[in-house]
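Meet the record:
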Amino acid sequence: MLFEKFGLVNTQELFTDALEQHYAIGAFNFYNMETLNAVLNAAHDCHSPVILAVSESALDYMGGDTLMGMISGKKIKKSDGIVLHLDHGSSYESCVRAIKLGFSSVMIDASKLPFRENIKLSKRVANYAHKYNVSVEAELGVLGGFEDEKTNSKFNMYTNPDDVKEFIKKTNVDSLAIAIGTSHGAYKRKSQNEKLRFDILSEIAERIPTLPLVLHGASSIPQKFIREINSYGGNIKNALGISPKQLQQAISLNVCKINVDSDNRLAFTGAIRKSIFKNPSEFNPRKYLRNAQQAFYENCVNEIKNIMGSENKLK
């Protein structure tokens, strides 16, 4: 299998263990050497499996050969429990491209299509991916918000529990991203009193208790990062995320993968702003990028330990 040459694993055994022990695996998006190092160092130091998530935009930004060159250079071993995952693949062709590069997991996001068309496209991707032992994630329901130019929507549509069993049976995908009130970007909530739709999540978990469920748009948006950015020249207002307590409740109801992007972006950006502001004569990128990598790393460690519960879960 292509991904095995890079020491990577797919999600199947990892999700089975996460379901049994009620923890989640963090899917941390990365975009360059510093953010890749931060995630892998956090995983190593926490003895935790992790999912390296790459959006189509990030893949275009890094380039496929450069990305896989970085992965190869990290000398990952199967025992490290590292997954390389295409986040929000928009087409069959994009998923095939990722698999041919050496990704061990892909998401086909056909959630904006009508139900039958979503099934058709998700099944086509699963049929191809499973030939190479690659895991497949699909999505039912639509998340609002903006992550990047390829991952955004102006509306939310909750997942219908009545559709889930048929969808899984007809597509044979390995995990399912659901919409229960999370959203992409840094503006997920108008107030801290808003709750996720745990009634929907509970019903899905009860109907298919062996199905690994996924939350996208679930960053907690720590306010310390917002304050840091704004203290050093930024202008981010009214950004609110999902509370760790709600995320932990979701994990208890079969959510075993939680995507984290905005939190780490904020940590990275805040550290760069602070470094440049406090050292205005500094123009060596290695110095301020080192600080940004450390901030990204520290947030990953915090989320692994205090939200995901995946510390020391490597076999």
Residues 145-154 have pLDDT under 50 and may be disordered. Strands lie at 25-29, 50-55, 82-89, 105-108, 135-140, 145-148, 151-153, 175-178, 213-215, 255-260. The radius of gyration is 19 Å. The CA atoms of residues 214 and 239 lie 23 Å apart.
